[in-house]
Amino acid sequence: MVDNNEQSLAGIPSSVNRRRFLARTGLIGASVLAGCAGTRPSTGDGASSSAPSASVAVTSVPQTQVAAHPVPGSTLAPHVADVQQTAPPVHVSQEAVQNWETVREQFTLTRDFIHMSSFYLASHPTSVRDAIDAHRRGLDENPIGYHVANNSRCERAVREVAAEYLGVHADEIALTDSTTMGLGLLYAGLKLRQDQEILTTAHDHYATSASLQLRAEKTGAAIRSIPLYQNLATVSKAEIVETLVKEIRPQTRVVAITWVHSSTGLKLPVREIADALAQLNIDRAPAERALLCVDGVHGLGVEDIQLAELGCDFFVAGCHKWLFGPRGTGFVWGRREAWSEVTATIPSFSGNATFGPAMTPGGFHSFEHRWALAEAFHFHLAIGKSRIAERIHELNRQLKEGLVKLPHVKLHTPVADNLSAGIVCFEMDGLSPYDVVERLRERKIIASVTPYATKYARLAPSLVTMPEDVEQTLSEVSNLNG
After folding, report:
1. pLDDT tens by residue, 398-416
2. What superfamily does domain 385-479 belong to in CATH?
3. What angle do CA 356, 13, 328 make, to 5 degrees?
4. Residues 278-287: pLDDT tens digits?
């Protein structure tokens, strides 16, 4: 595989060449250069992603040639010390994850509240906080030297551990700042003709529907939005798959779905949808195949699954929810055979990269947060994906089974594990969802309201939740009245 860091994008210095340039101008010291020169990019030796897909092989992402840009800052040379700039590694000890109480102790979350909405915006565990702090100190002490020494190395480290966690290749991952950014970049870049259409559902988040609408306006392609079931109380995997598949037409180019609905807590059978779509794609030319695109943010960090097992073409998620990653981080994963169906919206700073790195927006980011994302994946791997999935499902079963016993409560999330994940939605007689959330807050329980036209109260036990927290929450819900 080509070493992307040894090449340049039409005159823009690559990471290694840029370091040499800066060293010659005195912007960084020799020790910084020595500390990074031996770092090599990923060779794509991650886990295989060869499971059947809704699409087939196509070509690699084309590169756009742009004018050379000068490297600014040469006048800063006298102010940059010749010091070692490489960030120290941060490790998760086995003692930190030996039981659920020690896991809870990794967070500085106040114990004055029961946190039932941690999926909304993460608190950082110790290892993530420490990594952010270390990078921030390095950037504050020597911004140029520290950035040059660490940016390529740390982004590569993030991709590599993310690939390990997701069961894919590192070069299939584009780094973003959020689910919304990822969806916007993906849908803005998908190759779509005016005579083709986008099929989406009535259950998706605004970020999906708005991103698709913007793409349709630019291309003239049509959008259809469909419900996936008649009654949530009786929904089944078979109904969802059958309903979606029968709506796919010859001109359907994009099938946009959400793995776990934040509106109801319903989890879609993505693998079964992908298998059915793959059958429909068999006789289609590459430019006509329907691409399965998944907003996966509320399954990531919950389910014990590798992306190849889902069978989708693209998977988009933020990492600052269930994964407890740094706030303002996310990614888009795409199969190699699908990435060439997308063009970049924002130019990459990754040189002559292909696939994910070529789709990673260039520019300056919140570097200390992006670089510390690796620690969130390490944290989950240290605990164990299967252990995490078992724990979250166990707590959610406890909550759902308790709610269905309350006469004034109507549960809207399926009880079955194969149709739900970590979000539980319900409503109460005589109380609006906002009233429920406010009264629970007064009782030191943090809940939320679904941000959709039909609103429900929402609770979500997670890794920072104990069984006694669930029992206390059920007790307080039972005491609420209209």
Report:
1. 999 999 999 999 999 999 9
2. Aspartate Aminotransferase, domain 1 (3.90.1150.10)
3. 40
4. 999 999 999 9
Q: Are 67 and 364 in contact (CB under 8 A)?
A: no
Tokens 């039909």, residue located:
454
CA distances from 16 to 194, 276, 376 (A): 42, 46, 27
Residue that is written with structure tokens 């210095």 in the block: 13
The pLDDT tens digits for 186-196 are: 999 999 999 99
Give the confidence band of 86 by pLDDT, cuts at 50, 70, 90: low
Q: Where are the domains of the chain?
A: 385-479
